[in-house]
Design brief:
Blueprint lengths: L1 H4 L2 H22 L4 H8 L7 H25 L1 H20 L4 H29 L5 H29 L4 H4 L1 H15 L13 H20 L7 H23 L14 H5 L1
Length: 268
Amino acid sequence: MLSRQIPREILIPLIVACALFMEQVDSTVISTSLPAIAKSLGEDPVALKLALTSYLLSLAVFIPASGWAADRYGARTVFRAAIVIFTIGSILCGMSTSLSDFVLYRIIQGMGGAMMVPVGRLVILRSIPKAQLVSALAWLTVPALLGPVLGPPLGGFITTYFDWRLIFYINVPIGILGIILATRFIENVREQDVPPLDLRGLVLSGIGLSGLVFGFAVFGQELVPLWVAGGVTAIGLIALIFYVRHARVTPHAVLDLNLLRLPTFRAG
């Protein structure tokens, strides 16, 4: 019934936008709730910056593998799995009783978010005719852009008038809805001939990107000694240099650096 009322080129982007909106909100919603979360967990608010950093680390590590996973197992399968992982991570974050728990569960959330965003866009590219692609991406972009804008005030409102744990629990009905709609309306498109996963490239890119993200995130915040932040950043930079050398001689690198030669890709 829903597919008859709403055209496919609008319905699928809105389903993907639902997941992207959830991920974008959650990446910014805790920024205004850190003092309340820190007080509840008995930690210094500055230490809660690790929760933001751990989420970004998880994104940096797992995003490169998302495209291969979608090709290998099907875009719908990976997209649904990403929503499930993100939703489970949200529930666990709401149940956190210590800083270590909270950081660990934010990493789990990041695993889901890392797969959800790029695979969601891949779903649209493989499901919508090229003639309708620009219109479809417009329906995707607007809700996704609202997430970072609404996240901080929503987090402050919920923390002030309710409980900070509700910030994460509200993802549960959105996640369930996304899973149902994805199962009903998204085709499980996959590639026929998928090359093996570039494990060496995945490890190098994961160490490199996570090292840079962590190093830049903790510089000047006194979360770790300055020499630790500098050392991790240096390790990340070295790993990325090794990855560039690896990608040049690997036919199916996990991150295709040849895309950087395309002017339209660099502009995006």
